[in-house]
Amino acid sequence: MGLRPALIIVGLAGFAATFVLGIRVIEPEGKRLDQALDTGGYRHPAVSWHMRRIDAYSKLDLVLLLVIVFDMALKPTADDVGTLLVGGVALLAAIAYVLREIRQSPAGSIAQTG
To answer: Model-level pTM?
Structure first.
C-alpha cells in the first residue's frame, strides 16, 4: 500500500507542533507558575491565572495528539478533504478556546473567582 503523503505531513506537523508547544509555551508558563507560588503562595490570584493558562495550553496539546491519532487511524490522502477538514476544525476550535482563555487578564480572573 505504501505511505501516503498527507498522513506523513499531518503526523510530522502535529508532532512538531506539540513539541514546540511544550518547550516554548507550556514549560515557561510552568516556571512562571512556580515563581508565583514562591512569591504569593497557592492562594495568590496569579497562581490561579497561570494554572488556567497551562490548562488551556494542555487542552490544545491534547487536541493535537488526538488529531495525530485520528490521522494515523484513518490514513487520509490529499483527496480525503472531509477527513482533513475534521482535524482542521478541531484544531481551530482548540486554538479559539486557548486564545479566549489566555486573553483574560489576571484581574479578570480574580474578579471571576472572587
So the answer is: 0.81
